[in-house]
Amino acid sequence: MELNDNDTLLVERYLANELSESERKNFQARLQTDAELAAYVAAHRAVDAALTREHRKKRFAAYDKEIKRQNVLTVTIRYAAAAAVVLAAGIAAYWQWNKQEQPQLAQTKKPAQELLQIPQQTIQSRENTGMGFAGVDSAQQLIPLWLTAAPADAPAATYLFRDTLQVFVPIADDTQLKDSAFQQSLGLFLTYDRTQNDTYFLTFRGKKYALKRYTPKPEALE
Amino acid sequence: MKILSLGNPFADEHALVRAIQRHDPKAEAYLYKKYKNKVVRYLMQKGTTEIQAEDLYQETMIVAMEKISDANFQLEAKMSTYLMGIATKKWYKLVRKENPTVPIVADGGNDEDGDAPTGILEKFLGAAENDSEWQEEQLQVLRLGLSKIGEQCRQLLDAWYERKWGTSDELAVQFGKSSGEALKKAVHKCREKLREIVIPAWNKKLQY
Hints:
The structure holds two protein chains of two kinds. Chain A is of the alpha+beta class. Chain A has helices spanning 5-15, 21-33, 35-101, 112-116, 120-123, 180-186, 218-221; strands at residues 133-134, 159-161, 166-168, 189-193, 199-204, 207-213. In chain A, strands 1-6-5-4 form a four-stranded antiparallel sheet. A two-stranded antiparallel ribbon of chain A has the order 2-3. In chain A, a hairpin with a 5-residue loop joins strand 4 and strand 5. In chain A, helix 2 crosses helix 3. The radius of gyration of chain A is 44 Å and the shape is rod-shaped. Chain B is built from nine helices and no strands. Chain B has helices at 13-21, 25-45, 50-69, 79-98, 120-130, 132-146, 151-163, 168-174, 180-207. In chain B, helix 8 (168-174) crosses helix 9 (180-207). At the A-B interface, helix 1 and helix 3 of A face helix 2, helix 3, helix 5, helix 6 and helix 7 of B.
């Protein structure tokens, strides 16, 4: 069957659902009366449907690939999010644990800030009552923050203050300073050299700092 | 029936249907992707393997898209219910194929929506819709036909059926046609060539 150009376009627009409501009704009425045209259109529609189906299948396969990619991405993101949560929880737990490990400066029942304000002249004092030591050194930038507190298993009332670089170890006598377990508990090493003006040295990261004795004011320590 | 999910470009399911009828390519992709996991899960709960469920989903969507694309289609339930209904019929056919003793039930075994096929169109479409094996045979004939209509026609039909949802004027430029209408006429001629090859072959296969 040979169609003229107008009918060809009409069939194409009909197949593509492009006809208006009235055009479609008119065309369908025409198909009712023209069996040859109806068979022709039906055949085209069948081929059109098969071609559409064939291409749909190809597109569906492409959608499936996209869905799989998205699913993989979703799973990856979920795992990454879960890992991030675990990591954050780990960091929070470590931070909390680390915080608990730090000795309570409040042991002295004095705010930390106040403890840091040990008078300079006291630090410089040469009096040795066997109560403690304060270190003042030029290595201020080298002693890290974590040294501001002694480990939990260090003897009670052992404090390291980074800001003033004072090492204060209130002990009954000097011998405890020489105890290696005690030194290790501080994370640093103290050595005593009587030949050098009875000076204690603090060794940290391979560097040696001289410590000056001082007598803390009892009221500052309670 | 408001579609609530994020990134949904359609106001509701009726808008989605209208977009599919307008051949909006985003609508087809959206519909396919939105319901895939849900329908596949549903089919797997019925005892299919994942591969079977995915095949059934494709068949479901082929039928659904053909029906929804019809200008007269009216969505009378939720889209998910509608798709599950088709999927259930497809699943039941699979079960019956594997075990013919399974009884035919009212809403599962018979997936025709209307009367038995009578005209040539119904004969082809109906058979294709209800019998995936025949559908595949039909497509094999079509592929063979496509290989016989010449490279230019094949390329034109490929482009038309892949991009017919875009503007025909744009496609016309690519194929050196003066206008969208000229392109449609060329498509018609190519499909006519294909029709002359495949319709007799389909008829022959249907007779066996």
